[in-house]
Amino acid sequence: MTSSFSRREFLGAAAGAGLIVLHPFSARAAANQAHLRVMETTDLHVHVFPYDYYSDRPVDTVGLARTAAHIGAVRAEATNSMLVDNGDFLQGNPMGDYIAYERGMKDGDLHPVIAAMNTLGFDASTLGNHEFNYGLDFLSKSLALANFPVVSSNVVKEMGAGPRDDTTLIPPYVILDRELTDGAGNTHQIKVGLIGFVPPQIMNWDRRHLEGNVNTRDIVETAKAYVPEMKEKGADIIIALSHSGIGSAEHSDGMENASVPLAAVDGIDALMTGHSHLVFPSPTYADYAAVDADKGLIHGKPAVMGGYWGSHLGVIDLMLEQSGGTWQVVTSAVETRPIYKRNEDRSITALVESVPMVLSAVTQEHDETLSYVRRAVGKTDAPLHSYFALVADDPSVQIVSIAQEWYVAQMLEGTEYEGLPILSAAAPFKAGGRGGPDYYTDVAVGDVAIKNVADLYLYPNTARAVLVSGQQVKDWLERSAGIFNQIEPGKPDQVLLNPSFPSYNFDVIDGVEYQIDLSQPSKFDTDGAVINPGANRIVNLSYNGAPLDMAAKFVIATNNYRAGGGGKFPGADGSTTILTAPDTNRDVIVRYIVEQGTISPSADANWTFAAMPGTSVLFDTGPKAAAYADKVQGVKIAPAGDGPDGFARFRIEL
User: Fold this and answer.
1) Same domain, yes or no, for 88 and 235?
2) Is 598 helix (H, G, I), strand (E, B) or coil?
3) Dihedral over Cα of 215, 220, 225, 228: its sign
4) CATH number at residue 415
5) What digits encode the pLDDT tens for the residues 64-109?
6) What are phi and psi of 128, to 5 degrees?
7) Which of the four pLDDT bands, split at 50, 70 and 90, describes residue 346?
């Protein structure tokens, strides 16, 4: 079932010269049984080369060229195989931005990630939410030369009475006719149905591109409509390409992470999942309802999530049996294959080497991207790093805030909003977490290049401004303060950060001064729902030296994701937007640095933790943070040994 012998041959060679051992399913399949391997990549985010464009150096932790070696091995171990992608392939690193903003996509142009996927012989893909970041025209041109079908069932150009009556943006599903070899060497025909899904939240996240052009439907309700249709058209097995995370087992309309209730839909045989940048099966999902985190089952059906940026290849092995003229799944196995391992001394060991033909497919664009990111736009006379961005006022976040405020002030000149106080909200994007101990902004004194601006601001968001009340400013900060665990006064070495709270939802607001009282519970849960209405973590909140007027009006400079409801922040649901800017936040930062020539970033400690005598907390950050610990403003930080997985641990005396 691979696309050609030559492709299988070179990928098999890439897997190494060792003895290839057939998977047990292939080895023991009977005459009426066949082993089908379905491989998944997900959340590639344009990572083809094993290269970190932000730090401008090769790395062993990313790259479809590395994942390709596993693809070759997996194909060689099985009688029948398919390869699919689960979305988020067009955006996410400077190569993606270079193609979108610098080179552009004309009719007939081949996008580099599509070129790499064509080389590997993908059978199909679905769309992820980031496919929409550059607009529908860019998306259409990028997909035009794909040698494989791309499907998505719940993005709709024209809505009918129900999903089956909709006109979808691209085909909702595909039924592939494939030849299957059984255990006796006989060939059979099989129809494999593939249906794709994307979070409905794209309508908020990319409102400027999508509003008035498309709409979305609920993932589970869409599946319930189309899966029976696929069965009617003869699909023997149906695989869901779910660019949606593994979350609650209880279905709610429009849910973002819907893979668990999706698995319960009758007729779906297996699920490819993604979006969350995690690995499944893994202990991460040990306590999730309807999920077997050891065997890789959701509602008893095989499911896999292959990490992100090419870090893992997801593999679902299906033992199929012919019965009554159709094929059915009788048993399954699930695994993921990593491209690297992290050693006890924090070093990285590559587990595979790049496949040269994949690198060759994008070499020109790789070289052009290097030139693009190395272009200097100004200078900084102080280091810009994010090692302590989650625990103290931080210069790498503040420079973003300053640039946003500078830009919005200009854009509001001559409008009814001119003269209103402008605040600015920004969050650290590269702050460790799932990205690992090296995933931090770190810009040295000297030239600031485009690669550094992309490092400061990871996503191609566009600038926005919202109009809010003083009370909404306070609640915005209360929502942000949910990243911290509640701390018991007088107790030493408590864990400070809630690992389930993403750093990109930790907004710092410049233009006001405030403290965070960690003895209080969080007012909001990690999803933005109010759980402690009387909680007040934000204390001593002031503007221009006076207590903040809760009824006063303020403008907050932010981005399209936040202004459109991303993160569910009070005062930011799309209805309060007063400025929809034409420029990306990165472009704003570049323009600001160009105008300043030399920037002098320094934190002003406009926010700190409220004092708690006799209390200390622990947090983990990158090992390189040690060089800056004694220079952090507003908080006393000291080393506290090694953290897990290559992180360094630090202590704060409150």
Assistant:
1) yes
2) strand
3) positive
4) 3.90.780.10
5) 999 999 999 999 999 999 999 999 999 988 899 899 988 999 999 9
6) -100, 175
7) confident
Please give the pLDDT value at position 12: 46
- Residue-level pLDDT at 503: 92
Say how far residue 302 (Cα) sits from the centre of its chain.
Answer: 23
Q: Estimate to the nearest angstrom the gap between the alpha carbon of 241 and the chain centroid.
A: 16
Clarify whether residues 341 and 429 are in a common domain.
Answer: no
As a whole number of angstroms, the distance between CA 417 and CA 254 comes to 34
Give 602-616 pLDDT, tens digit per residue: 778 999 999 999 999
User: How many structural domains comprise the chain?
Assistant: 2
For the beta sheet containing 80-85, the strands, ordered from the edge strand earlier in sequence to the opposite edge, are 150-151, 124-126, 80-85, 33-41, 312-323, 326-338
pLDDT grade for 19, boundaries at 50, 70 and 90: low
Report yes or no: 241 and 87 within 8 Å, Cβ to Cβ.
Answer: yes
Q: How far apart are the C-alpha atoms of 352 and 386, rounded to whole Å?
A: 31
- Under a CB-based contact definition with an 8 Å cutoff, are residues 366 and 566 in contact? no
CA 128/CA 244 separation, integer angstroms? 8
pLDDT at residue number 3: 38
Packed helices 5-14 and 64-76: angle between N→C axes, nearest 10 degrees? 110
Q: What is the pTM of this model?
A: 0.76
In this structure, the strands spanning 376-380 and 598-599 are parallel
What does the pLDDT read at residue 227? 98
pLDDT digits (tens, 9 = 90+) for 257-313: 999 999 999 999 999 999 988 999 999 999 999 999 999 999 999 999 999 999 999
- Residues 228 and 183: beta-carbon distance below 8 Å: no
59 and 175 inside one domain: yes
Same domain, 358 and 425: no
Statement to judge: residues 67 and 152 lie in one domain = yes
- Structural domain containing residue 161: 5-368
C-alpha dihedral sign at 443, 449, 450, 453: positive
Domain final residue, candidates 333, 368, 403: 368
Q: What is the pLDDT of residue 5?
A: 30
Q: At what angle do helices 112-120 and 64-76 cross, to 10 degrees?
A: 10
Q: What is the CATH number of the domain that holds 114?
A: 3.60.21.10
Q: How many residues does the chain have?
A: 654
Report the C-alpha gap between 508 and 301 in whole angstroms: 42
Q: Same domain for 552 and 609?
A: yes
Cα separation, 218 vs 427, in Å, equals 29
C-alpha 555/C-alpha 417 separation (Å) is: 8
Q: Token pair for residue 304?
A: 């896999």
The tokens for 51 are 């290269």
**CA–CA dist 380, 277 (Å, integer):** 33
Asked which of 368, 391, 409 is the last residue of a domain, the reply is 368
Whether residue 549 sits in one domain with residue 518: yes
**179 and 325, same domain (yes or no):** yes
Is 583 a residue whose pLDDT tops 80? no
Comparing CA positions, the residue from 505, 538, 525, 522 lying closest to residue 607 is 538
